[in-house]
Specification:
heterodimer, A: 293 residues, alpha/beta, Rossmann fold, seven-stranded mixed sheet, 30% strand, B: mainly alpha, 9 helices, 77% helix, 0% strand
Chain lengths: 293, 248
């Protein structure tokens, strides 16, 4: 059943230091191959830790993570990763950085794609990395990751310091890659709007746990925004994620188990509403929609 | 079905490019020190032998003995500079800035990365230190008559043979371990350098107890070399253990 999973976590946990807190705990999810997945959550939720574990940069404290059907270490040549702070060697030029990518990724380096990403920003290949702006460095880091032509691309806050034009262009490049080669892309962000158009899968991380996971369409379909009289009742059969009373009126985000009584007005929630409701209410039960796979 | 072995990532060009300034600095140091030694042998020492017969004035630092004393001390502490460099520039800074992680997410495993780094650094360090040890030994042996030094003084004992390259290797390993354990450039520099200074200061305590069973320079020098190499091997194993524990 796991043969087509690009990324799978089983009771995954990571603690920093022997007495430190858990950055991630009891995470289980499965991401089918070929998806573009958004990892969303507040600052310090464990998004970066999750991506670093998948990239094989740190070892899990407990549980396991499976990448492309094998261990993160064995999957290394087939996985691309861009860390949040976009580390690059400041003393190298852009051309030297790309040559390093070619040297360190024998047999699957795509120089044309890497150069296309770099020249798209009008960057001079002879410019040194230390002379670049934050957004320009992001472009070079992405070129290095895309040029590897990975089967799984892990991007930690990839678009944070890009201008809207560059963001649009690079997102287009990434999506074209995904479409052409069936690349699975996992990207984290805390800006939901950034991901809504391009992602079809969601991992919501909060407090070191997975709060929601599944296809975005199915997650949205599983929830309803309901409005009605505060004393109407009839919501007992549904799981209430969040509810708010203003005057005599009650507004709630619920997961209905069956049809609701007719006196509730219902509407479909937006992705942002869904995510915010879950983040505001850590006590709401997690939901893992696995039916898509 | 036999598949072709996948091509190994070629790390050499990148590493040479990244550590080019260090390689140039080390080459310059080796050439300078070797040049000084040859100057002592071919210019200063013969001149002082003539002076012994006639009268002439010379200053402390320009004299053969002064230069040899200075060079001996410099060579004794060279491993500390190597440790500082290895801790800070070779390993610590890369972990601190995340560039090590950048390399580990190419097709290069962390173990392969560390091995490549240590080998690329060890080759020029061993070559340079061996050349210096050979030249120092031959100059010291040939010009003993104008040098005020005894073979068991540290500044003569250390640079006269394989003990010098062994200490340089220890500096490299100590730097790597400190860099990997502390993951920051400045603390790694300080700790690795301190470890080397401690070894330098207490080196005599390692081989001095052997003075009964072993006599003369060569046996004691080789025994001290062996002990430093054992220490180096232990530190290297520890460095790999730290790396394996930290990464998947």
């Amino acid at each position: 059943m796991s043969s087509d999973a690009a990324l799978r976590a089983d009771a995954l946990g990571k603690r920093f230091g022997r007495r430190g807190g858990w950055a991630l705990r009891d995470c289980s999810f499965r991401l089918p191959a070929g998806r573009v997945c958004a990892v969303v959550g507040p600052n310090g939720a464990g998004k970066s830790t999750l991506l670093a574990l998948a990239a094989g940069l740190t070892a899990p404290t407990e549980g396991s993570v499976t990448v492309l059907g094998t261990t993160p270490a064995a999957a290394r040549p087939r996985v691309g990763f861009v860390a949040q702070d976009k580390p690059l060697y400041p003393q190298l030029t852009i051309a030297e950085t790309l040559r390093m990518g070619a040297d360190l990724n024998p047999e699957h380096w795509d120089a044309a794609v890497a150069e296309q990403v770099v020249t798209g920003g009008g960057l001079d290949p002879k410019a040194r990395i230390r002379s670049l702006s934050g957004g320009q460095r992001t472009r070079v880091a992405l070129a290095l990751a895309v040029g590897k032509r990975p089967e799984l691309l892990l991007l930690d806050e990839p678009m944070a310091d890009l201008d809207p034009l560059a963001r649009h262009e690079l997102m287009g490049t990434l999506m074209a890659q995904a479409a052409q080669y069936g690349t699975t892309i996992v990207m984290s962000s805390h800006v939901v709007a950034e991901l809504e158009d391009s992602c079809d899968h969601l991992l919501l991380v909060g407090g070191g746990r997975i709060r929601l996971s599944g296809e975005i369409d199915e997650l949205l379909a599983a929830h309803l925004r309901v409005t009605g009289a505060a004393d109407a009742g009839g919501l007992d059969a549904a799981t209430v994620v969040e509810s708010r009373v203003t005057g005599r009126q009650l507004t709630a985000l619920v997961r209905p188990a069956g049809p609701l009584p007719g006196d509730w007005r219902t509407s479909a929630p937006s992705l942002e509403e869904l995510i915010l409701a879950h983040l505001r209410n850590p006590g709401a039960p997690a939901l893992h929609e696995e039916s898509a796979a | 079905m036999t598949a072709l072995a996948p091509a190994r990532p070629a790390t050499r060009r990148t590493l040479l490019r990244l550590h080019r300034p260090a390689l140039l600095a080390w080459t310059a140091f080796v050439l300078l020190a070797a040049g000084e030694l040859l100057w002592v042998h071919y210019s200063a020492a013969p001149q002082e032998r003539t002076c012994a017969r006639h009268w002439c004035a010379y200053t402390t630092f320009a004299g053969a003995d002064g230069v040899m004393r200075l060079l001996g001390e410099a060579l004794c502490y060279a491993p500390c500079a190597v440790a500082a460099w290895a801790g800070a520039a070779l390993i610590g800074r890369e972990l601190e800035s995340g560039t090590a992680q950048l390399v580990w997410t190419q097709a290069v495993t962390p173990v392969h990365w560390l091995t490549a780094k240590l080998t690329m650094a060890a080759l020029p360090l061993l070559t340079g230190a061996s050349v210096l040890a050979l030249v120092f030994d031959s100059v010291w042996s040939a010009d003993q008559d104008v040098l005020a030094a005894h073979w068991d003084w540290d500044r003569v004992f250390v640079p006269r043979g394989p003990l010098l390259p062994a200490l340089v290797l220890f500096g490299l390993a100590a730097g790597a371990l400190a860099g990997l354990a502390l993951r920051r450039a400045l603390p790694a520099l300080a700790v690795a350098c301190a470890a080397c200074v401690v070894l330098r200061l207490y080196l005599r305590d390692l081989w001095e107890p052997l003075r009964g069973p072993l006599t003369g320079f060569r046996p004691l020098h080789l025994a001290a070399t062996g002990m430093v190499l054992v220490l180096t091997a232990g530190v290297t194993v520890a460095a790999y253990a730290v790396l394996r524990r930290r990464t998947a």
